[in-house]
Amino acid sequence: MTIGLRTRRAGLGLLGGALAAATVVAALLAPVIAPAPPTAVSLGNRLLPPLARDRTGVLHPLGTDQLGRDVLSRTVYGARISLVVGVASVTLAGVLGLGAGLVSGYIGSAVDSVVMRIVDLQLAFPFILLALVIVALLGPSLTNIILVFVITSWPVYARTARASLLVLRSLEYVEAARSVGAPAPRVLLRHVMPNAMGPMLVVASFEMARVIIVEAAMSFLGLGIRPPTPSWGNMLADGRAYIRDAWWLSTFPGLAIMLLAGSVNFIGDAVRDALDPRLR
Fold first, then answer.
1. Using one digit for the tens of pLDDT, what is the confidence trace for 168-188?
2. C-alpha atoms less than 13 angstroms from C-alpha of 22 in its C-beta half-sphere
3. Cα–Cα dist 30/91, whole Å
């Protein structure tokens, strides 16, 4: 990789980190940033354009929606949903997949075959069909959306962890630990898992971007977070009927999705470049 390309990717990684950090801060400070409660309806102030003031003089920087709700308030509160779903799904799926991949790869034999066949079956199962089944049985909610992503994402981490273990278990320091009688849990936790975390972090960064986009798509289709709870997906769904006359209803949540998912992808690229010596 040339120095110019490496510098450009590092700069994009810093930009992605700054955008992601700004999103996290905005989500945490939503009650301070929001001009009004995100679910407060005011039909007299409906469809105000950006930078307009309502009848009481309150400024709405991003305008209001078809029910008079402040778009900025709903956007920053919607960031909480995307971040919670993304972080929780990636963390739980990563822990489950890491454990399954390391155990199956280390033990091998029948255990490895069974786990990998489960992974193959899971990867072959259509995501949207599984989401429909879970939502139909349990109902749309934040917990069930996270459950959908955990069930559909853990095989990716399991395969990545297993592939890393198959390489690491033949290295000298792992063989040395096993030759002195170190138990399997100690070998996995002390010698294998720390060195397998690099690829896992790269996968997790890209998976989080995917989860953010797919969660918004599910909410857009009515399979995710139910209104009036603000999420970027159902904000897009609400705004599609007013796209010609009130462009801001869909534009700002769409930009938020694009910027957050793009920033996470930039971070993933930077992490990959930092951990892969072939790209230095």
1. 777 777 777 777 777 777 777
2. 10
3. 24
